[in-house]
Amino acid sequence: MLYQVLKYLLLGPLLRLVFRPRIEGLEHVPEEGAAIIASNHLSVVDSFVMPAIVPRRVTFLAKVEYFTGPGLKGRLTAAFFRGVGQIPVDRSGGRAAQAALSSGLAVLRKGRLLGIYPEGTRSHDGRLYKGRTGVASMAVTAGVPVVPCAMIGTFEAQPTGRRLPRAMRITIRFGAPLDFSRYAGLEDERIALRAVTDEIMYAILALSGQEYVDTYAGEAKAEARARAQGRAQGRRGHGGGKGSAR
User: Fold this and answer.
1) Is 144 in contact with 34 (CB distance < 8 Å)?
2) What pLDDT, on a 0 to 100 scale, did the predictor assign at position 239?
3) Which of 57, 120, 211, 231 is the most buried (most CB within 10 A)?
4) Which of 122, 4, 108 is nearest to 63 (CA)?
């Protein structure tokens, strides 16, 4: 019930008013049956806008941080994700990663749409980063098609660090479903999963027109933070030197 209220009466109409989304290729999303929608990830609003415009319910594997954020924004975000039945995912790896895959497969086995961000986290600079193989593992194991999706303009609407989104037009573009049935039985083969993942990322890239970086987004973020911290320490050290000279 809460899902319908949010999508059709409250949040859905508000998002359409604020972002005036231009929708392309929606006919590629299956009207029934299990499928994965694999999208780039540029902003928090991605997880709100795309499910709002897809006629069917989309269940996302959402990072657990979306359920534990501080303040009013954190509580509202958590309430939304819980209200629409999204699944929190611990991204710490190991058993947590396997649990996330199991949760995703459970959604697909019920014949539902599963939304996933193959990059694993938001892009911090608007570029498209290397995909993780979880999406391939689920697609091959469940034997379902993957619909590539590109969010365009959401980075400009609400980049990382911006508390409230700008009111501006965005585009949501869906591509033709990708069939990976030729990989049946190879869900444990790393080379096969990498090939599937790269094909998915290439399809997203073709739709989004982003610059591609053959590095994981999490690693790129960590490197960017380290560089920023180094520059800050350098400035403090330089300033201290000036002060001691006086």
Assistant:
1) yes
2) 66
3) 120
4) 122
Tell me what pLDDT residue 96 has: 63
Distance of CA 143 to the CA centre of its chain: 21
pLDDT at residue 245, rounded to an integer = 44
pLDDT of residue 129: 98
Q: What is the DSSP-derived secondary structure letter of residue 175?
A: P
Torsion of CA 173, 25, 144, 43, to 10 degrees: 20
Whole-angstrom distance, CA of residue 60 vs CA of residue 46: 11
Distance from chain centroid for Cα 95:
21
pLDDT at position 85, please? 67
Q: What is the total residue count of the chain?
A: 246
| Residues 92, 95: Cα–Cα separation, whole Å | 9
Residue pair 7/52 in contact by the 8 Å Cβ criterion: yes
Q: Are 122 and 160 in contact (CB under 8 A)?
A: yes
pLDDT at 9: 84
Cα gap 22→204, rounded to integer Å:
17
Segments of the chain scoring below 50 in pLDDT: 244-246
What is the reported pLDDT for 202?
Answer: 98
Is 172 buried (19+), middle (13-18) or exposed (0-12) by CB count in 10 A? buried
129: phi then psi, degrees, rounded to nearest 5: -110, 165
Query: 134-142 and 190-208 helices cross at what angle (nearest 10)?
Result: 110
Residue 26's alpha-carbon distances to 53, 67, 236, in angstroms, are 9, 29, 52
Q: Which of 93, 193, 84 is nearest to 140 (CA)?
A: 193
